[in-house]
Each structure stands twice: as C-alpha cells, then as structure tokens.
Amino acid sequence: MKLFLDTANLDEITRVAEWGLLDGVTTNPSLISKEGGSFETIIRKICEMVPGAVSAEVLAPDYEGMLNEGRVYAGWAPNVYVKLPMTLEGLRACRTLSDEGISVNITLVFSANQALLAAKAGAAFVSPFIGRLDDCGEDGMKLIEEIMQIYDAYGFDTEVLVASVRHPRHVTDAAKLGADICTMPFSVFEKLAKHPLTDIGLQKFMEDWSKSR
Ligand code: G3P
Predict the structure, then answer these.
(1) How remote is the CA of residue 30 from the centroid of ligand 1, in Å?
(2) CA 97 to CA 94: how far, in whole Å?
C-alpha cells in the first residue's frame, strides 16, 4: 500500500520525505488555505519534493471551468493529479481529462455507487472519505471493502485512495483490505512508527548496556 501525506505544509512533507517513506501527497482547498503563498507555487514545490502523485484540486464547479483549471495544473509538473469533485460535472470532466492523458483523482466519495461511476469515468484515483463517514456514525471502512469488491469484480484500474484518515487503525484496516493508497495527516503518519513497548524496550537495552560498562 502506498502511503501519502494529506497536507500542503512543506515542512511536514520534507520530514516524511527524509524518512524515505513518502509515496505521494494529497491537498485540498482547506489544506492549501492554511499555508501562505500562491496555490501554483505550493503545488510546483511539492511536485519537486515528491516523485509520486501530487493531487491538486480544482475550484470551478462547472465542466468547462474544471477542464481549464485541470489542464493548467497538469502543465505545472508531470506528477500532478487533478482532483475533481464527485459531481456529474466532475465525472464528465474526468472522462475528458483522462482521455487527454491527464490523471484524475475523484474526491468527496461517500458511496460505492459514486466509486463505480468514478472508475467508469476513467479516474486514476478514487478518494473515499472514511473519517467523515465514521463521524456521522457510519462505517467508513465498510465502504472501502465494498469498493475493493466492486473494482476486483470488474477489473477496474482505478486505484482506491483511502482519505479522511483519523488514526493508525484506519491505516491497518485499509492495508488489510488491500487498498492501493492511504493518505493521512502528518500526526497519523508519525504514529505509525510508534509503540510504547518499543520505547520501553529500547530504554531498557540502553540502561542494561550502560550498567555493564
Ligand atoms: O484530503 C481529503 C481528506 O483526506 C480530508 O480529510 O480530515 O478533512 O476529513 P478530513
């Protein structure tokens, strides 16, 4: 499973890239708005730092506007994935941009049928938001299971990008289901490497070693 950071913060991206574990980055308008500087500058910079896919989301709500923005974003770097919302206009733009060879990530997916349509529209990635479903009392991971089952049944190439991840258990469960990608905030990425027994064990090794010197 590929591990992506869900951020537009360059310091966080630098840190995870240094660990050698970063496969890609997802951004959205909320994340971009938290950072200073122009959208284009941020996306270009991230694309230089990360060899993998970098998602940049359109703001236009209509087909023509999405095409215009998507084509511009795709010209910024070869690893830009144009993020389009899960609307009928978005699906239509997905088909057109995908046919032009531009990689598309369909975002704000909350049902298996939406994921089915994204795959049929030629999306490279589909982004189900599991945390926001959990927040509503639904089972976000159940949606991942359903999408994986449907995509396997029909051999769709669209990669399942598990988004709106809240904690490390989401990552484990996504991996168990065979999801292609999991994107997460820096705080969750950092927690993947941590376990209290690792820290306690390491401290004990060091104490025992220093006692014997
Ligand atoms: O990037 C999209 C998604 O991961 C958003 O997550 O935490 O705002 O639900 P969240």
Answers:
(1) 9
(2) 5
